[in-house]
Amino acid sequence: MSASENARPRVGLFVTCLVDLFRPSVGFATLSLLEKAGCEVVVPEAQTCCGQPTFNSGDFKDSRDIAANVIEAFEGFDYVVAPSGSCAGMIREHYPELFEDDPAMAMRAQHLAKRTYELTSFLVDIMGVESTGAAFDGTVTYHDSCSGLRELEIKTQPRKLLAAVDGTSIKEMPGAEICCGFGGTFCVKYPEISDKMVTQKAAEIVESGADYLLAGDLGCLLNMGGKLKRLGARTEVRHVAEVLAGMTDQPSIGEGER
Amino acid sequence: MQTTSHSFKQNARDALTDVQLQKALSKMRPGFQQKRADAVANLPEFEDLRDRGRDIKNHVLENLDFYLERFESNVVANGGQVHWCRNSEEARQTIMEICRSVDAKTVTKGKSMVAEEIGLNEYLEEHGVEPIETDLGEYIIQLRDEPPSHIIAPAIHVNKEQVVEAFRKKHTDLPPDRPLEEVGDITDEARTQLRPKFFAADVGITGANFLIAETGQTVIVTNEGNGDLTQTLGKAHVVVASLEKIVPTLEDASCILRLLARSATGQEFSVYTTFSSGPRRETDLDGPASFHVVLIDNGRSAMLGTEYQDMLRCIRCSACMNHCPVYAAVGGHAYGWVYPGPMGAVLTPSLIGIDEAGHLPNASTFCGRCEQVCPMRIPLPKMMRHYRAKEFTENKATSQVRAGLRLWSYFAKRPWLYQQSTKLGAALLHALGGKRGRIAMLPLASGWTSVRDMPAPEGRTFQQLYKMSGHGKKGDAR
Ligand code: SF4
Predict the structure, then answer these.
(1) Model pTM?
(2) B158: DSSP letter
(3) What is the ipTM of this complex?
């Protein structure tokens, strides 16, 4: 069902486990953006995690159980939206794959996959949003998180919306498409390699000269933010939804009380 | 070849603290990546070519026996010979016998990864035959007595000073005052050394980028022309190739050749693309008296029909490693065997086993760039994930990882319990973060905090705040 056929599409908000635990403000910013775009938003209480940690560790059985939970919780919405390219990518690309040998579940998984979107691509590609009407003073640089970029082709959508934010300008950094070294469990299993990657990333972020680093995935943001803070860099770190929703009253990621 | 894949972690640590290596690696990224991007941009049908390349190889892999037999009969018709070898030992012995048959003292070699795989050089040396690498990069690492660190640029980890050092040490006839400052001087010196060796060699050994079933030809691509000299000047030409290198027709080979050069170095075509069609014929002015193809399985056929079959489409272009941020951080030697980077992370455990190479498919962030650039559309992350699954089901994942996962999925499957614990976690970590809003040291998460701060949670979970806001009541009824 496309947006035009339904005046107020019912959207299930997939909060993501990291947003739930670390940064609820991103969840509320997402909620506000979706509502402003004309959606009726519901947050199913029974959601936990999309299953990436187990899936990428090769624990397919538990991943299936977790995925079944998500499918159950999000069935019946016109769309499912997550403020994360990797969680949306997990549902879109990998849920159908997980249930390849279970036709009934595979059908439900495919059905869900087709209706699941990352936030900025949902706003731009489905709802046709051109501007979120927000204002935010500062220069920002945007990191393209890997799953969103390569699984869902999210590249222009956040930039388009940011360009329409009053007072914001974008300064691209070199290697914006290169992994920050987070990689879920990778960053704790191979901390030295992860460190090398995020150190390089931090240098390029600083080199861009932007005041803010934005991205669409909290995992990457916690990684890059944690490194920038450890290095004492002044760059502030935020999820793109906060800026687009004009909800930037919370301290930025890794910053304390101001 | 000696493997150190099991100590990948330590190898990686060593690589990360090797200042010279890090410098060499940092120069790699911009070059290869930009060149590939430009070459792809200049060929509108590149994506269609990729589909064709993938389809050609898939078709071959489904009918491998047919095409290999066809290849063999055409090689024989051209006056050559095919030797089928199940493993490294058989391959080494076969090559040694060919060397003996012409009473070989020295052999020249064009670059070949599969020769590395079967440990050919050591074997030849042990049996009294001197192998001489003729690809400049291979020659340099042979002098330095180390394995390649990249599949098309084997000495990419070595800098100019180190090359000069190796030359001064090993070229005993080199006058100490001869200048070796310019790159030109260095290649001149290598050429001076190699030229007589080409003429003296009794046997020339090359790899093969393709074996063409239709014509019985073998194909190599090089940028230095050393492959041509290697294969024409000896008494015998030995082609060592693994069996998945087969393609049905000349046209198929040319399709994949166009993908190969662009993906590897951004060239439209390699400088030399040489087709070998058997030994010298009566009317030929030069060429080897005999022509042998040593066809090596060494674990490939066991991959057929498994999750890893797609890996056999690999054409060794190295695009995956040129774009891999993990390779860029640690270099090729850390992977501990012949094949580095993402392709190695799948091929190595397939060929030498997951007990030896289990680290490799784990040491990836699944950023997906390798798959994005792979001309043969090999789903590299997916296959690495299959290796992780294999480890997991076979109980080989480290117990700490297993315990962590089990705990996570226990909660993730029980929303109510999950929410109680996230509430607690958010509050606790928030408190730990204090006024700074970040945590500098957290014993249970030292893998994280040893290298970066942990931004602290805001204090309450989204679900908690959402309910408090009154939103939840009207929302969840459906
Ligand atoms: S896996 Fe793909 S990108 Fe990597 S070397 Fe093989 S063909 Fe090239």
Answers:
(1) 0.94
(2) -
(3) 0.94
**B18/B11 Cα distance (integer angstroms):** 11
Mutate to test the pocket of ligand 1, among B32, B320, B347 (most ligand atoms within 8 A of CB): B320
Contact between A151 and B368 under an 8 Å Cβ cutoff? The reply is yes
Residues 135-154 of A with CB under 8 A from B: 146-147, 150-151
Question: How far, in Å, CA of B206 to CA of B235, rounded?
Answer: 14
| DSSP classification of residue B231 | H
Please report which helix (H) or strand (E) contains residue B323, including its range: none
- For residue range A173-198, list pLDDT tens digits in order: 999 999 999 999 999 999 999 999 99
The angle formed by the CA atoms of residues B239, B245 and B247, to the nearest 5 degrees, is 115
Mean pLDDT by 10 residues, chain B (478 residues): 92 96 86 94 96 98 98 98 98 98 96 95 97 94 93 91 91 86 89 92 96 98 90 95 98 96 92 94 93 98 97 97 96 97 98 95 97 98 97 83 87 92 93 92 88 94 92 48
Q: What is the arithmetic mean of pLDDT over A128-138?
A: 97
**Ligand 1 atom nearest residue B343's Cα:** 1
**Cα distance between residue A140 and residue A212, in whole Å:** 5
Residue of A10, A19, A22 for testing the chain B interface, max B β-carbons within 10 Å = A22
Chain A residues within an 8 Å CB radius of B390: 58
Nearest to B462 among A24, A66, A184 (CB): A24
E-assigned strand segments in B268-364: 272-276, 290-296
By CA distance, what is B469's nearest residue in A?
Answer: A28
State the virtual CA torsion across B264, B267, B271, B276 in degrees, nearest 10: 50
Summary mean pLDDT of chain A: 95
* Whether A152 contacts A94, CB under 8 Å: no
Q: What is the dihedral of CA B56, B61, B62, B63, to 10 degrees?
A: 90
Number of H helices, E strands in chain B: 24, 12
How far is Cα B267 from Cα A233, in angstroms, rounded to an integer? 40
What is the rounded end-to-end Cα distance, in angstroms, of chain B?
A: 63
Q: How far does CA A238 lie from the centroid of its chain?
A: 12
Region at B37 (left for phi over 0; alpha for psi -120 to 50; beta for the rest): alpha
Three-state SS for chain A is: CCCCCCCCCEEEECCCHHHHHHCHHHHHHHHHHHHHCCCEEECCCCCCCCCHHHHHCCCHHHHHHHHHHHHHHHCCCCEEEECCHHHHHHHHHHHHHHCCCCHHHHHHHHHHHHHEEEHHHHHHHHCCCCCCCCEEEEEEEECCCHHHHHHHCCCHHHHHHHHCCEEEEECCCCCCCCCCCCCCCHHHHCHHHHHHHHHHHHHHHHHHCCCEEEECCHHHHHHHHHHHHHCCCCCEEEEHHHHHCCCCCCCCCCCCCC
Q: State the Cα–Cα distance between residues B427 and B279, nearest whole angstrom.
A: 77
Cβ contacts below 8 Å, chain A against chain B, sum to: 228
